[in-house]
Amino acid sequence: MNDIVLAADLGGTNLRMAAVGADGEIIARAKRDTPRSGDPESIVRAIVMSARECLANAAGFNNVKSIGVAIPAMSIDPSGGIVKKAANLPALNGFALGRAISRELEMPALLENDANAAALGEHWTGASRGTSNSICVTLGTGIGGGIILNGSILRGPDWSAGEVGHICVEPLGHPCGCGSIGCVEQYASATAIARIAAELMPVYPGSILAGNVEITARSVYDAGKQGDELGTEVFRRMAFYLGIALSSLINILNPEVVVIGGGVADSWDLFIGPLRDEIDKRAYSEPAKRAKLVPAALSDDAGIIGAAQIAFNEGPGKTYFQNV
């Protein structure tokens, strides 16, 4: 089969596009900055230009079925291809992105939450391939999540299911951008790691991080790798809070695999031991033993592969818009 789809991963900083074959192989790529003009049509133009660039480089593949687009949206209205809320791309709020892309490219366009797309990508060709029930957690500036049950992504009637980052782990804790307090995103994301290190600095005045003009999750990791007590303690706390959240999910969903990705996952060796210990203490023993904790396998391609999987498998009457 020579069928291909286009798949885009639209982030707050970069737009990444690929032409993808039916086996999940990436055939051609394009990348450009995400427009920051505040004009949704500029984002549509960037997507269209990237799509045409990929098609020009996908020699021998003429049957393009559709395009899937992973977007950082907390909520999507699939009936009209409307982005209801995208905190990092507010220009898209209320905009019928799916319809606009479909009109310009003259093919079906499907939208998906970026964390859901990453979960689907890992499930199709990555770290949770071959399983039926999995959780994918992305640890970056914030925390995203995607849940697959019986082989299908869990979206919920409002397309807001899977918001792992907003599980409360500290009822009187740090305020979260979502409007709640004590969300795990405030204790286990890259932003949280840097903040916690700064908060603990007075307790560890001898830390090699002392005097740093800017503390980042990476610098905390580098310190921890050198045996620095502050760096080690920050990741112990991060694992403690992430363990609380994952233990609850494991008890409720009984997954076979928990995939952990995102930039913070590069610190795997500092947090995986205490994270596993916390889950073993808190979750029911059989589900805890069954749930394998594994690093994501697809890196930055997870969202693109997931968007491609959606484009291949979704059908009429679901979430695509053909020339309307």
How would you describe this protein?
The chain is α/β, with parallel strands linked by helices and 324 residues long. The chain folds into two domains: 4-113 and 302-313, Nucleotidyltransferase, domain 5, CATH 3.30.420; 127-297, Nucleotidyltransferase, domain 5 (2-Layer Sandwich), CATH 3.30.420. It has ten helices and twelve strands. The chain has helices spanning 40-57, 97-105, 114-125, 185-188, 190-200, 217-225, 229-253, 268-282, 285-290, 302-313; strands at 4-10, 14-21, 26-33, 64-71, 75-77, 82-85, 109-113, 134-139, 143-149, 152-153, 257-261, 292-295. The strands form three sheets. A five-stranded mixed β-sheet has the order 3-2-1-4-7, sandwiched between helices. A hairpin with a 3-residue loop joins strand 1 (4-10) and strand 2 (14-21). The two termini are 29 Å apart.
Summary tags:
single chain; 324 residues; alpha/beta; Nucleotidyltransferase, domain 5; 5-stranded mixed β-sheet; 10 helices; 37% helix
Task: Briefly say what this structure is.
The protein folds into 2 domains: 4-113 and 302-313, ATPase, nucleotide binding domain (Nucleotidyltransferase, domain 5, 2-Layer Sandwich); 127-297, Nucleotidyltransferase, domain 5 (2-Layer Sandwich), CATH 3.30.420.
